[in-house]
Inverse folding.
């Protein structure tokens, strides 16, 4: 009989997340995680079949931790009733994507997405990695986009269903590139690197402004 405890499982997840962030998803091996909490690899494999299985479990833990924070940020943005939907959206994105307290979570997610790409994307990836956060995060942004369309602060010539992934994935791609490369970005200073994401948010918000009909 294989004995497992929730306490040990949680210790594994915490150690795995820290190791994935420190060493990167590619370089982390199961033995590294086992060594981090002082158990054998055989004991670790009783809980998780392989590194991918462990990665999905850590992702679920990150989702559960990050969603309440994003919900609070959304409530704060919506509480600014003097702001338009587009302005509330900008506030939500800035406080969500530029939040220093979320950096570790976002870094792990960047490592996870980088590893599960190309030929390493398993057939069940969408069902296992989808989880509740991507849908709720999409819903949060979608609500603000729709509010902006309704109050006239966001353009109507492109549907909210098309605007939503454009906003989310353009920001996510740049953010993950910065998190994974950092100071190694070519031909750009550290100071300019730190301004890339805020500037992209500004450019996107400008691009969401209503288009004058001609």
């Amino acid at each position: 009989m294989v004995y497992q405890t929730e306490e040990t499982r949680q210790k594994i997840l915490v150690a795995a997340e820290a190791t994935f962030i420190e060493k990167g998803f590619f370089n982390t091996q199961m033995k590294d995680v086992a060594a981090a909490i002082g158990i054998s690899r055989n004991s670790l494999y009783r809980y998780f079949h392989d590194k991918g299985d462990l990665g999905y479990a850590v992702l679920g833990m990150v989702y559960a931790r990050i969603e309440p924070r994003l919900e609070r940020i959304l409530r704060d943005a919506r509480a600014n009733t003097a702001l338009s939907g587009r302005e509330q959206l900008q506030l939500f994105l800035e406080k969500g994507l530029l939040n220093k307290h979320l950096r570790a979570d976002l870094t792990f997610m960047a490592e996870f997405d980088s590893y599960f790409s190309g030929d390493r994307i398993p057939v069940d990836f969408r069902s296992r990695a989808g989880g509740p956060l991507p849908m709720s995060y999409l819903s949060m942004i979608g609500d603000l986009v729709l509010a902006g369309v309704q109050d006239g602060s966001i353009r109507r010539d492109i549907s909210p269903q098309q605007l939503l992934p454009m906003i989310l994935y353009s920001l996510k791609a740049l953010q993950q590139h910065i998190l994974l490369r950092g100071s190694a970005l070519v031909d750009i200073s550290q100071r300019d690197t730190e301004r890339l994401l805020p500037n992209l948010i500004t450019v996107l918000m400008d691009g969401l402004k209503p288009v004058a009909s001609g």
About this structure: The radius of gyration is 20 Å. The mean pLDDT is 89. The CA atoms of residues 24 and 182 lie 14 Å apart. The chain is about 70% helix and 0% strand.
